[in-house]
Every structure is written in structure tokens, then in C-alpha cells.
Amino acid sequence: MNTSKAHRIALLFNANKSFDREVISGIAAYLGSTRAAWDLFLEEDFRLRLAGIENWQGDGIIADFDDPAVAAALSRCSVPVVAVGGSYSDEAEYPRGLPYVATDNFKLIKLARDHLIDVGLHRFAMFSLPKAKENRWAQERENAFRTLMEADKMEAPIFRGCETSASAWDESVEGQIAWLRSLPKPVGIIAVTDARARQLLQACIIAGIAVPEQVALIGIDNDPLVRMLTRIPLSSVIQGAQEMGRTAAHLLDQMLHGVRLSNTRILMPPAGINVFASSQHQAVRHPHVARARHFIRQYACQGIKTHQVAEYVGVSRSSLEAYFRQELGCSVHDVILQFKLDAAKAGLECGERSIADVALGCGFTSTQYMHLVFKRELGCTPRAYRDRALALETE
């Protein structure tokens, strides 16, 4: 048993951000797997208390240095500090004299673009954030996108739009729709975060732009909350933020025991991609099939039937079935069921909803029917699928 005095550690992160929450989760995982005894100071509104943070009477700090106000406030700090943030192409952007754990922005964008290439797309664009000091990481992702596109001698269309606010919502959506309509189709779009991808997905639905037939979308963060808020499940690059948190905690633990780590820099590659319907582009020649799939993606989880899809498209049920067999080699019901299955998988991976709630929310007539579909299609029960997904997240 460790009887030494616990260290007082401040975590300066914004718990409203998915990335920051994942880093905090990684720090917690490190503490749970070691004998480190830390008393953690964490407040969601920490920026209100940044003044005087350099005089804090604790033992160490792990902080999100993507926020320039945090970096400035800690520049005069006397206790050990580990910085966490994004990678930069310009060496001068990194904090001096501090160990720094960074998400590799170039590899995040390359992985997203490679995925869009793999599904057969040849045109690409990016949806970013307005230029600001707080968004330096987004501008780095823009730079990575430009570099990759220039290497292939391709245009690199980037749209920043405006910040999210209730007063400017209509104007923001109109701007997104105008940009989407200006792009040659089909096109693969990388959004700098899942939140931005969700906004663009909504704009596509409002404008009647088929996702992913005309616009294939992929975000960054693998945020389960965002997946729950989209009609069409969103593909996303997994940043590896939990591993960043574990690494940052390990570095601080070493510093607390006298190890000197100034200017140590660790770049964390992405952990992979969670692929869902928003980026699963598949060229479809027949317009009735394309229109039907667009309708199915939006309403499959509401329990629609084949005859309702046919009514929406404006053809007979038998004709639509024939088109589907010819184009996709499966029935309309098969496509509806596959979409419901994908939505259920996304819901189970969140780990916050009961299996019964997931079944109901994804349009299955009963939990038993969803159980049957999972066993038949995936060879496991919904509970086993959820347990395996959550276990992978904590590894």
C-alpha cells in the first residue's frame, strides 16, 4: 500500500470539449493502473481562475496548450507542467522548456483523406473554423490538407464558415449550403471536428444533398455524443486522446520524482477510423436507387417499410426492388436493415444507453429482434458487442 503523501495536481482542460474529456479520461486510466496518488483539481470554468494560477500552491499541472490564454498564464509557473495540444509545422509554435504531448494533425488529415480515396472519391474539400488564436490547431489541419492536395497537384477548397451561435444560425447554414452547392460532385469533405461535420451534415439534409452519394463526410474526434445527434451516423478519425492523457500523466509522474524532461516532445498518431454511413460512398448509377438510399439513411430508424420508400421515390414497390437487385444485388429491406444495424452499433458503442433504448431508437420492433439480427449478421449478441467496444476504448 502506498502511504506517501498525495500530490496535488491541477488539470486545466475544458470539459465541454470532446478532445479534452478524452485526455482527462486517459489521465484517470493512468492513475487507475499505477500507484500514483494524486488529488486532482479540475473545474470546467477554469479560465475564470487563470489569473494568479502561477502562484498555485500545488505540485504539478497538466494543461491544454491549444488555448493561448492557458499557455500565457502558465509561462511563469514554478511547479512542473506538462503541456497537451496539437502538433505544429512551425517549431516556434511549441512551448519552450516544457514536455509536450501532441496529437499529430498531419496524420489525422492524411488518414481521413486516405479513407475517402479508398471509397473511390477523387475530389476533396475541408470544412474548418474561423481563423483565431484559439483555433490554431484547426489552421494546422488546413495546412496539412493543403500540403496533401498540392502534392497531388489538386485544388484544396477550404470553407471556414462562422462560429456557432443562435443569432447567426440561419446565416451560417445558408453559407454552408451555398458552399456545398458550389463544389463539383461527388466530393469527400473532411471536417476539422465532429461538431463541424455534424453541422455540415445537417446542411446537406436541409438542402437535399445526398450523403454520401454526392457528399461523403468524415469528422475528427470520434465523439459519441455527436453520433447520437445525427440522423446519418458520422464517420470519424479517432485522435488517440486517451493515450495522450496517459502519456502526459506518466511524464508528470516522472517529473514529480525528479526526472528532467524539458522540451520532450511526443507526437501521438491517430488510433484509427470509426467508419459509418456518412463516408461510405458507393457510386450508384440509377437515380431511383440513389434517391431511395438517401431517404432510407434519414428515416430507417423510424421504422420505415419498403412500400414507404417506393412512395417517396414515386415508383412501384416491385420496380424499386428490381432496381435495387440490379444496382446493389440486394433488396430494399436489406438496405434498411443494414442501416438500422449500423445505427445500433453506434448507439451501443456510446455505452450510455440501455440495449432496449438502442433497439427502440434504431427502429427495431423489439429487443429480441435486434438480438436475432446481431447474432445472424455479426455472430454476437448486442450486449457482447457493446462490452467488446467499451473494452477496446479502455485499452
TrEMBL record:
One of its GO terms (molecular function) is transcription cis-regulatory region binding. Residues 290-388 form the HTH araC/xylS-type domain. Keywords: DNA-binding, Transcription, Transcription regulation. SUPFAM superfamilies: Homeodomain-like, Periplasmic binding protein-like I. The keyword Amino-acid biosynthesis does not apply. The keyword DNA-binding applies. InterPro entries: Homeodomain-like_sf, HTH_AraC, LacI/GalR-like_sensor, Peripla_BP_I, XylR_PBP1. This is Helix-turn-helix domain-containing protein. It comes from Massilia eburnea. The lineage of its organism: Bacteria, Pseudomonadati, Pseudomonadota, Betaproteobacteria, Burkholderiales.
